[in-house]
Write a structure and sequence with these properties.
Elements (H helix, E strand, L loop, with lengths): L1 E6 L3 E6 L2 E6 L12 H4 L6 E4 L11 E2 L20 H10 L5 E3 L3 E2 L13 E3 L2 H13 L3 E6 L3 E7 L2 E6 L15 H8 L5 H6 L3 H4 L2 H19 L8 E4 L3 H12 L3 E3 L4 H15 L4 E2 L2 E2 L3
Length: 291
């Protein structure tokens, strides 16, 4: 069995074979390898594909033992730190089972240089997400992950072209880009930039009747903007909020959508682990594999 691990905003999600398993990030601080018996039923794990936080200190799919600082430039930045993801990463690294870490998309990644005006395009689990969607939609597609964050990627001819991270464009339910009010509050010392990011989603910015409409509109705008580069690209929606906004996004884009669930990234990462350890691939969606 090959296992993929999605270090999500609220939970650690594991997938292997046809099975899935989830641990809330706060509970993952006590993770043990034996917890994965819920997933494996005792079947041997042949390899892991792991994600951790931003994954911004490396650009290739790399053995976890070769990473410095678990693949991060810094733990400071956009997001909430609970310690659960760190615990899972360290247990997998020390397990003796072959494991690779998947990088995030950043200025060192082999994406379209125009997207590198921003330092970060996506966190590592979005690579797993994209890989799973390509397996279902084909070599060119757009995937928008809509949950606590909204992150949208374009894949063209089996290569990730680029995308929009949560702090750039479309808000998610919890997180979003910093607007003028947030910048003023940060400059006035009323909050940190990270606190502002953690409260910039539609949940805190809008009244209830407008939240899902705004979530749908901005996610559709991200998809539409990426379609400038691939006009016929089919679109997939993933994440915990995808189902609630899918009809409106389909209406705005005037196209059918593939709707996938919260397990999509973990399943894609499981496929990546199998491709790396069983098929000896040299790249995944344009990202080099360095064993």
């Amino acid at each position: 069995m090959f296992v993929g691990i999605d270090h999500g905003t609220t939970a650690m999600r594991f997938a292997g074979g046809e099975k899935v398993y989830k641990i809330p990030r706060a509970d993952a601080v006590s993770f043990q390898l034996s917890d994965l018996l819920h997933l494996t039923g005792g079947e041997e794990i042949e390899g892991f594909a792991v994600t951790y936080s931003m994954g911004d200190n490396f650009s290739d799919i790399t053995p976890v033992a070769h990473l410095k600082n678990r693949g991060l430039v810094s733990r400071e930045g956009a997001g909430e730190h609970t310690g659960g993801g760190t615990r899972v990463f360290d247990v997998i690294r020390e397990s003796g089972i072959p494991a690779v870490a998947v990088p995030g998309l950043h200025r060192g990644s082999p994406t379209d240089p125009r997207f590198k005006v921003y330092s970060h395009q996506a966190s590592p689990e979005k690579i797993g997400l994209a890989y799973e969607v390509v397996c279902q939609l084909g070599p060119t597609c757009i995937v928008s992950d809509i949950s606590s964050n909204t992150v949208t990627l374009l894949i063209q001819d089996y290569r990730i072209v680029g995308g929009f991270d949560a702090c750039l464009f479309a808000p998610g339910w919890v997180h979003g880009a910093l607007d003028l009010d947030a910048i003023r509050a940060i400059d006035a010392g009323k909050m940190t930039a990270n606190d502002a990011f953690l409260h910039a989603g539609v949940r805190d910015s809008l009244d209830d009747p407008d939240r899902e409409a705004a979530l749908a509109m901005f996610a559709a705008m991200e998809c539409a903007s990426l379609r400038l580069l691939a006009p016929e690209a089919p679109v997939a929606l993933c994440g915990s909020r995808a189902g609630s906004v899918a009809d409106e996004i389909a209406r705005l884009l005037s196209c059918d959508l593939l709707i996938l669930d919260e397990w999509t990234a973990a399943k894609g990462l499981s496929r990546i682990a199998e491709a790396v350890f069983s098929k000896n691939v040299t790249q995944i969606l344009g990202i080099p594999v360095r064993l």
